[in-house]
């Protein structure tokens, strides 16, 4: 099984597959070995990934030139090759089998149950793993009311951000009296660092289609749309193939499975705007208008696409539905916490050893995700915080590591579940700089319809930017808090309403860092260039010239074997010397106040 998710494809997995096919033919193994391209395996950072079944031997970071040896040793002679196996950080011995690797061991795969084990471009493989069983049951044995009751009893809440109960939304739409109703699958996924939906679309598109047919029967819709952002070409291609194959098998289109039920699906390609993921903006975009939100109510369930009742759910929500119908609401409700049922997929990124996609039961602690599954922080650095819930989520500090990830706990802590982006930060991350990054993203993505969001995000960004430049003033933090509340209260859609979360949560948990920037003109994390200074530690400098050679502005003076000095008037603080030095002799000076001369207008 060769991983052909976007991550592995981008580091050459199609070439690995070609090389495997060639080598397998060369060794005359073509009748013994089947080579399958799967969707994302989850452990994207280790790509390209190859899984040898049935033993489950896990190979990683392969190169084309490794393949002849691997085929000869493992596939021909039956000797798994240690040097291509995964070695956990701080350990020496490789772990041969996928099931024994910590990253995989502690996950609970429900939505991602088919990841890495089927070819997403072959419907037969999906059917082979109980695919379309739930749809057959829903169409042949259940009434729409029974389907909705089952989804409601499961406790499923939307995975796209707000966590609205799915059964309740379907029921509201079912009750509407209209000649036509629609379904939408929201695959816009604009959050930086998030790739959960892309991975499902690429790895198991039939699961989404199956969920949508079940939803269509529940609300009485004949037509559905899958909205995929422009940046996801592979996802689009796989969903396209999936739709064609489902139609050929009579699982989509007219008279599905001979039950007399008609439903078909069309793909709509987004143009890559974050705000277009908001449901009313997305509906406008599908209709061919500019993707900007409108005031709610009426909600889409009452007045959605072309003014007709419409159910819009996230990719992960749709892919969860068949599992609930097949295995029962009771089973699903048994997973997770009192108010957050089932599992949640997170994309684990940032300063983390095991970058990738993880699915865990709701209520799993941040500590377990970051340390047990994620393998902790690289280079033994200190864990500082996680940004959870995307750009409008919030940061949770290390001291709240035991917090369970469920909708209520996260909101109470000032963050939110969002769609599942989880960015890990170490002690080298400046929280003021982080708030600036997200504000910059949000001010850029704000559609500009409401003043509070358009101007609020812009002003908050300007203030935070000024603080990172060492020009912070007394009263800035209070002004930020005031603006944040206005933006939250007065904005029309979720973008403006949650835009202040990164600022408010960083102010709440890392106020001292703001104070250091504003009053002491220091950046304790050593990130904000105006507030740091690079210097060479004489006792550690070996005079190897590496930093001198790496400096693009010739700011380093010194001779071979002599202590080097950085000329502060020439230094542009690019950090090249820090990276070049192998003796940890270059340091960022962050404890000393830097005098900032403010320009006067
Ligand atoms: C600015 C903004 C962007 C959003 N982007 C997405 C997105 O990319 N995908 C998504 O499913 N929901 C997104 N949402 C939430 C949707 O408006 C909507 O609540 C969701 O698609 C409903 O599906 P669910 O109930 O299954 O979560 C976004 C909301 C806002 C305010
Ligand atoms: S793309 Fe291969 S593991 Fe994610």
Bound molecules: flavin mononucleotide, FE2/S2 (inorganic) cluster
Q: What name goes with the CATH superfamily of the largest domain?
A: NADH-ubiquinone oxidoreductase 51kDa subunit
Share of residues in helices: 25-40%
Total individual domains: 5
- What is the typical, i.e. mean, pLDDT? 94
β content, as a range?
Answer: 5-15%
**Strand arrangement, major sheet:** 7-8-6-5-9
> What gyration radius follows from the Cα positions, in whole Å?
26 Å
The CATH architecture of the largest domain can be named as: 3-Layer(aba) Sandwich
Key terms:
binds FE2/S2 (inorganic) cluster, alpha/beta, 18 strands, 601 residues, Glutaredoxin, single chain, 5 domains, Rossmann fold, 24 helices, Ubiquitin-like (UB roll)
Give an overview in words.
There is one protein chain. With 601 residues, the protein is α/β, with parallel strands linked by helices. The protein has 5 domains: 2-101, Glutaredoxin (3-Layer(aba) Sandwich), CATH 3.40.30; 123-333, Rossmann fold; 343-426, Ubiquitin-like (UB roll) (Roll); 431-518, Up-down Bundle (de novo design (two linked rop proteins)); 529-598, Alpha-Beta Plaits, CATH 3.30.70.20. It has a 5-stranded mixed sheet. Strand 12 and strand 13 form a beta hairpin. The radius of gyration is 26 Å and the shape is globular. The model has no long low-confidence stretch (mean pLDDT 94). FE2/S2 (inorganic) cluster binds next to helix 1.
């Amino acid at each position: 099984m060769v991983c052909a998710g976007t991550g592995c494809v981008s580091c050459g997995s199609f070439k690995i597959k070609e090389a495997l096919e060639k080598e397998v033919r060369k060794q005359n193994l073509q009748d013994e070995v089947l080579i399958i391209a799967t969707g994302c395996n989850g452990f994207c950072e280790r790509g390209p990934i190859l899984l040898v079944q049935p033993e489950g031997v896990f190979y990683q970071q392969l190169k084309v030139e490794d393949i002849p040896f691997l085929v000869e040793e493992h596939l021909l002679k039956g000797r798994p090759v240690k040097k291509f196996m995964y070695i956990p950080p701080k350990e020496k011995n490789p772990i041969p089998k996928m099931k024994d690797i910590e990253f995989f061991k502690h996950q609970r795969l429900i939505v991602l149950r088919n990841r890495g084990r089927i070819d997403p471009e072959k419907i037969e493989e999906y059917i082979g793993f109980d695919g379309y069983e739930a749809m057959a049951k829903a169409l042949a044995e259940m009434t729409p009311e029974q389907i909705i009751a089952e989804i409601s009893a499961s406790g499923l809440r939307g995975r796209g951000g707000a966590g609205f109960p799915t059964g309740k939304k379907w029921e509201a739409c079912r009750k509407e009296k209209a000649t036509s109703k629609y379904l939408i699958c929201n695959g816009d996924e604009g959050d930086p660092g998030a790739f959960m939906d892309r991975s499902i679309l690429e790895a198991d598109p039939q699961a989404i289609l199956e969920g949508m047919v079940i939803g269509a029967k529940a609300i009485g819709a004949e037509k559905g749309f899958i909205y995929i952002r422009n940046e996801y070409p592979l996802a689009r291609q796989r969903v396209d193939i999936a739709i064609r194959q489902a139609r050929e098998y009579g699982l989509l289109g007219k008279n599905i499975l001979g039950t007399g039920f008609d439903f078909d699906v069309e793909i709509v390609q987004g143009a890559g705007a974050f705000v277009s993921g908001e449901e009313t903006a997305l509906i406008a975009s599908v209709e061919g208008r500019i993707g900007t939100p409108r005031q709610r109510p009426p909600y889409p369930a009452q007045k959605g696409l072309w003014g007709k009742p419409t159910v819009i759910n996230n990719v992960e929500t749709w892919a969860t539905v068949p599992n609930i119908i097949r295995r029962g609401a009771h089973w699903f409700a048994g997973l997770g916490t009192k108010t957050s049922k089932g599992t949640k997929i997170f994309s684990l990124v940032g300063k983390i050893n095991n970058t990738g996609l993880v699915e865990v039961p709701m209520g799993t602690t941040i500590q377990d995700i970051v340390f047990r599954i994620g393998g902790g922080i690289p280079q033994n650095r200190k864990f500082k915080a996680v940004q959870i819930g995307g750009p409008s989520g919030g940061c949770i500090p290390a001291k709240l590591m035991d917090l369970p990830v469920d909708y209520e706990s996260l909101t109470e802590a000032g963050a939110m579940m969002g769609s599942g982006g989880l960015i890990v930060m170490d002690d080298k991350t400046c929280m003021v700089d982080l708030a600036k990054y997200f504000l910059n993203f949000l001010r850029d993505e704000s559609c500009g319809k409401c003043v509070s969001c358009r101007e609020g995000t812009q002003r908050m960004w300007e203030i935070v930017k000024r603080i990172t430049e060492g020009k912070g003033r007394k009263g800035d933090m209070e002004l930020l808090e005031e603006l944040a509340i206005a933006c939250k209260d007065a904005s029309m859609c979720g973008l403006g309403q949650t835009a202040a979360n990164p600022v408010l949560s960083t102010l709440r948990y890392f106020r001292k860092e703001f104070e250091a920037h504003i009053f002491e003109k220091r950046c304790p994390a050593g990130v904000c260039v105006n507030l740091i200074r690079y210097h060479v530690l004489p006792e550690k400098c070996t005079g190897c010239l590496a930093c001198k050679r790496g400096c693009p502005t010739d700011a380093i003076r010194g001779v071979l074997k002599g202590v080097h000095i950085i000329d502060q008037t020439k230094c542009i603080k690019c950090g090249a010397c820090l990276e070049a030095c192998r003796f940890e002799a270059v340091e960022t000076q962050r404890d000393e106040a830097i005098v900032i001369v403010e320009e006067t207008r």
